[in-house]
Specification:
Elements (H helix, E strand, L loop, with lengths): L1 E3 L6 H11 L3 E4 H10 L22 H14 L1 H11 L6 E5 L4 H13 L6 E5 L3 H11 L7 H20 L4 E3 L6 H9 L1
Parallel strand pairs: 1-3, 1-4, 2-3, 4-5
Length: 189
């Protein structure tokens, strides 16, 4: 299962619950992102290194969002590589991450069908930057309020939701929290 969505909206917590229910495990795509960035340079793959030399809070929200989208699109082959690897084993997994795109998820679902395996994809959505700011504060209490980061995340969530709709993939609101697992299961069938 692919679980996409912007930063700070509850993907990791949901992924852990879904993996536990299916007796599988979680693959955090952020780990793959870090690995790919570690073996490339900005000269080789500029879209993977937008944030290496830039302080994102100093940039306008629209520019950070554009960098996030470019990075996500550049990482699509890596996402498909992870899915292809998971298709070779019979242990269920939930692959979750900010940089999973609906385009890559759609290709992964098709590749799963072609190999006789079921790959499902769902995207979480949170439109309220205030809620995302509160989520960050709960998750990272030692940091100052991350309002700019939350504004970018809310905009990225809108973009991902729109793209998921274009690809006929389910989008689930991240709130209310207490029904998120059930609503996600229902959305993916």
């Amino acid at each position: 299962m692919l679980l996409g969505g912007a930063s700070g909206i509850g993907k990791s917590r949901l992924a852990a619950q879904l993996a536990e229910e299916s007796q599988g495990f979680v693959v955090e795509f952020d780990d793959v992102v870090s690995a790919v960035q570690a073996i490339t340079t900005a000269e080789q793959h500029p879209d993977l290194h937008h944030f290496d030399h830039v302080a994102a809070p100093a940039l306008p929200t629209a520019q950070v969002l554009a960098h996030q989208i470019a990075t996500a699109r550049a990482l699509e082959p890596a996402a498909l590589g992870v899915v292809r690897n998971r298709l070779t084993v019979d242990v269920p997994a939930v692959i979750e991450g900010d940089y999973l795109t609906p385009a890559a998820a759609t290709r992964a679902v098709r590749e799963g069908l072609a190999s006789g395996r079921r790959v499902r994809a769902v995207f979480l959505h949170e439109a309220d930057p205030g809620q995302i700011t509160a989520n960050y504060a709960s998750r990272e209490p030692d940091l100052a309020a991350q309002t700019h980061r939350a504004q970018v995340s809310a905009q990225f969530s809108h973009w991902l939701s729109h793209q998921a709709g274009l690809h006929s993939l389910p989008v689930v609101a991240s709130r209310p929290w207490h029904t998120l697992t059930a609503r996600t299961r229902q959305a993916i069938g």
